[in-house]
Amino acid sequence: MIRLLSQFTVALLAALLFSPLPVDAQVKVQLPRTGLTPEDLAVIINDDDPLSRQIGDYYQKARHIPAANMIHLRFQPGRNALSKDEFQQLKAEIDRATPAHVQAYAVAWADPYRVDCMSLTSALAFGFDEGYCSSGCGPTAPSPYFNSPSLSPASDHKLRPAMMLAGTHFEQVKALIDRGVAADYSFPEGRAYLVITSDKARSVRASYFERTAKELAGVFPISILETDAITGRHDILFYFTGLAHVPQLHTLDFMPGALADHLTSTGGQLTDSSQMSSLRWLEAGATASYGTVVEPCNHMQKFPFPGIAMFHYALGASAIEAYWKSVAWPGEGVFIGEPLARPFAPSLREIRAGQFELRIFSPRERLLRIERSHSAAGPFKPIAQHPSLRRGANRVRFNFAEKEGYLRVRW
After folding, report:
1. DSSP letters for 282-328
2. Which residues are paired to 19 by β-bridges?
3. pLDDT at 1 > cutoff 80
4. Per-residue model confidence (pLDDT) at position 246
């Protein structure tokens, strides 16, 4: 059964997984892990495709991806689809080359985007399986990663979500990657636009819009609009709509890290769709998007639930995690964008000797626990104060001298 948006209230952070932040705070102050890092991501490159090589090389440098995580293949480029037999041969190569600790994939091309009846990103995650394809507009196999609290999908669910660094020209993909990097720890003050269009068949997600606005009140500013297009907006952090072709994208400004998609039949046919390709969102300035590669019919479960994507993003998840967790039946859908963008990841800085400032975003009111130990291995004991976190952005200051041992922050 599909879990409902009310499950936003489930605590989704694994409290025992900690890692020091890549900021100027001392490593003696530890924060919970909230999302994937460059060490968790492998990059797949087609060495027979010059653009793929260029994208992969730039992404490795921009994100400091370890050399061991770079996976090189060779196959004929310039096709929108792979046969299942060819894919299975390539998948075997990928599996052999993937370090065991890797949790997700970035794919350095736009073509091919499909494997027979599956999207490439889902085929990489699940392996080719016709259970993830429709039969007569029916349901498909569900994703165990849907709305999951997992911070390690390969370890917990035996799958590695994938996202395509997609574009038809290098400068487009370079700009996409740069936006993703710029998004990290940025806490953008953008707005979510949930749009109900005149196309009722493609606006089926609207039945959840009011509930989403209620669940995320005080977390993000949310506008629910009845229109075929928004124009002249310069604060777009989320844009979810339903239309075969979305007009006026050239009038919009997207915040770094923005997620945007349109529910339609073939938006995931990236380079040859008769409808609007999901690539148009990236070209307009979004950092990640989604579309289906074959006719899915308008099952909501085959498209992102906006509220779930927004909720996981608010927890500090990366774009690939937030988007993947929002789709219940992703077998026919392709995820595109910069996977590691984490605009709401918590950041810690030492503002003066012994004084720290924690910036943290929260989708719920909750208590912040600061614990101290004389050893990095613990045991950790809570200090007296437990500051309260409000919905949305928070700044918390606390004092800590290195000689006092180690601090661990939990929420």
Report:
1. HHHT-SEEEEESS---S-GGGS--HHHHHHHHHTT--HHHHHHHT-S
2. 31
3. no
4. 98
d(CA 179, CA 171): 12
Cis ω before 379 (30° cut-off from 0): yes
What's the DSSP call for residue 114?
E
Q: What is the pLDDT of residue 27?
A: 55
CA distance 371 to 383: 6
Q: Residue ranges per domain, the chain?
A: 15-33+352-410, 38-337
> In this structure, what are the phi and psi dihedrals at residue 342, rounded to the nearest 5 degrees?
-135, 75
pLDDT greater at residue 27 or residue 113? 113
355 has a pLDDT exceeding 90? no
Q: Mean pLDDT over residues 19-34, rounded?
A: 60
In angstroms, rounded to a whole number, what is the distance separating the alpha carbons of residues 309 and 216? 11
Spatial separation of the C-alpha atoms in residues 276 and 16, rounded to whole Å: 44
Q: What is the mean pLDDT of residues 238-258?
A: 98
Model-wide pTM > 0.90: yes
3-state DSSP call for residue 198?
coil
Alpha helices in 105-244 (DSSP H): 120-126, 153-157, 170-183, 209-215
Q: What's the pLDDT score for residue 402?
A: 64
Count CA atoms within 13 Å of residue 146 on its CB side: 22
39 residue type, one letter? E
pLDDT more than 90, % of the chain: 80
Contact 361, 188 (CB under 8 A): no
- How far is it, in rounded angstroms, from Cα 253 to Cα 17? 36
